[in-house]
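Lecture 7, part 2: worked example. A protein chain together with HDD.
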Amino acid sequence: MSGVFQRLQESLNEAKISATHKVNEIATTNEKILDLYPNTVSFDKGKHTMTTDHGTKINDVDHWLKATGPDSQGPSLLEDQIARERIHRFDHERIPERVVHARGTGAHGYFKLNEPIPELTTAGVLNDTSRATPVFVRFSTVAGSRGSADTVRDVRGFATKFYTDEGIWDIVGNNIPVFFIQDAIKFPDFVHAAKPEPHNEVPQAQTAHNNFWDFQYLHPESTHMFTWAMSDRGIPRSFRMMQGFGVNTFTLLNAEGRRTFVKFHWIPELGVHSLVWDEALKLAGQDPDFHRKDLYEAIENGFYPKWKFGIQTIAEGEEDNFDFDILDATKVWPEDLVPVREIGEMVLNRNVDEFFAETEQVAFCTSHVVPGVGFSNDPLLQGRNFSYQDTQISRLGVNWEQLPINRPVCPVMNFNRDGAMNHRIHKGKVNYWPNRFEAAPPGNYNGDAGAYVEHATKMAGIKARVNGPKFKEHYSQAQLFYNSLSEHEKSHVEQALGFELSHCDEPIVYKRMSERLADIDISLAQRVAKMVGGDPPATTKHPNHGLKAPRLSQTEFPGKPTIKSRRIAMLIADGFDMATFTAVRAALKAQQASTFVIAPRRGMIFPAGVDPATGTGGLMPDHHLEGQRSTMFDAIYINPGTQSTLTLRENGRAVHWVREAFGHLKAIGALGDAIDFVQQACVLPGVALALDQNSKDVVTSYGVVTGWNADVKLLESTKIEPSTTA
Ligand code: HDD
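Predicted complex, written out as structure tokens:
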């Protein structure tokens, strides 16, 4: 550590780190950030001159060297080594994208343990409450390629790298607690079926196609997972508002050598919230980087997302006490049977300096665990433990763990050598063990926490391509999940299936899937079949058992009510009431909401009483009505002002803004004459508005803003569904 600190000191002295991060030095620096500093370069005005990669100064990067005459443009010369270097480097900028989870974004932070668990594990990170373990988290979608949109319906990856004192620990999880397949050998088929179809490479980042649903039908084990993926979990409002699950069954090993099966959980402080489908579809075009920007913006503004860390544990010896196999990744451990124990928390508080070097090159392996954490015979996990190391070698090269973002903060000492892009220089005469110098012996390292010890598990069996007998049951938990959803969540599942299956144009696919849905719930199957052209099934071999379990519905994770970091659009036009605007904006800012002023044009907007001819006294909006849409905001507020309201009322786009926000179940605020405007825009057949004339508080669907003055009125849809309201 002292070496790292010394390097930090040197780097700081040389002012090599960026000014933004200096501001946040205390709050956001950790061992891993310090470790990255020696590799972090910044370009300070006046200090640096451009050079080639071999360090010679360059005086012209605008003109390729040419053989040119006084009146003619001569040919470009290949001998220009400076131009050649630039083009060569450029030609090789891309590395292969991840074969799955190609689209993603990440951030740094820390993990803090609140409750040590020595009875379960020797892992330092799960015992030492004084540590703040650095982490890097990458969130992702699964199916789309690197340039695809953020808000597509998909599972989200939630991969966490802990830089512990005892080495790297990766929990490579998702925002859904189960998986599509039980055995890793099926992964290539699953991914091929989910990705664009081979004959025309269509569709991008969508499961709404024949091959995906054909695969789902042919793999009854996928039923549970696709029900989750079709629920609101498939279209999260934000990475900050998702649960994370390790999915696979791992083990913990204590000092007595006792083993406990474990599943890992991340529970977001902000609650679990989703977009509505129409919003997600529109955002995919209007702002494909919506989730990426949301995370970045929140961290830059100091709204650090936070998750509780939980474990579900089953002591060895009790694993057969369930009607499902605890090693089957298509099953949850229902929380009424195995409660989640919250023992720590994770905060993300720092954006990356460079996307490629950090987020694109970060690489995870389920096989990366620390002493005290181990694997189980979960057949999906066993295959994953092979696959990740392998894919990193092909994507990043054999020395991928030497890359700054991937290297541990503790020493690495072994006789693995050479390979492309090796960066280490090992001193000494030997590169093998045992050696006459007894250099780098295995075993306890420097007397620190113990080495990784494999649990001495008793094994007996016959080699065969099989899974355990309980792996054969596929519908019970799909039913449990569906039954546990609220009514509006169920209707969203139905609509999602309706959308997906109507994009399948081969009758065998949507007809078979309509039948399969009866294994979840016959009435769901009948409704979807009717929608998509299937044959509504009359009976099912697997009638719904009617059971529910707690904490499967996301409505059970409302989170801490807050409008902190929520994006609120404030609509104004010329003639707006400046005093009210200023008061409302101050009130919103006091609650740490992010406000954005939207007007018919991004040019000075003048309040009532100010003559535009003077050119002063106006307000410059952040965006104009066409440039940003209501989809990009959590709530909208329409400011009063006779002329302003008149202008907005006559502006089709402004009316659309209000109607769309209303349709997406967003909180809409209005004052004075703007209330009439909102009412006129939104009162559509079948939709009711509740107008609370007396409220002193503005209640949003996700929080309460206190302290507004008594004039503030509440406008709210009676149809607001809290869990799905963004
Ligand atoms: Fe995987 C990436 C999550 C099953 C093989 N996976 C990857 C990432 C996440 C997951 C979050 C992105 C990591 C990052 O941000 O870089 N994968 C899961 C979960 C699974 C799962 C939760 C089920 C429990 N995966 C799974 C199987 C296999 C793989 C069964 C292969 C047998 N996964 C990969 C991969 C990837 C990957 C091909 C692509 C890029 C990478 O690893 O680094 O190796």
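DSSP finds 20 helices and 19 strands in the chain. The longest strand covers residues 341-351. Keep this in mind for problem set question 3.
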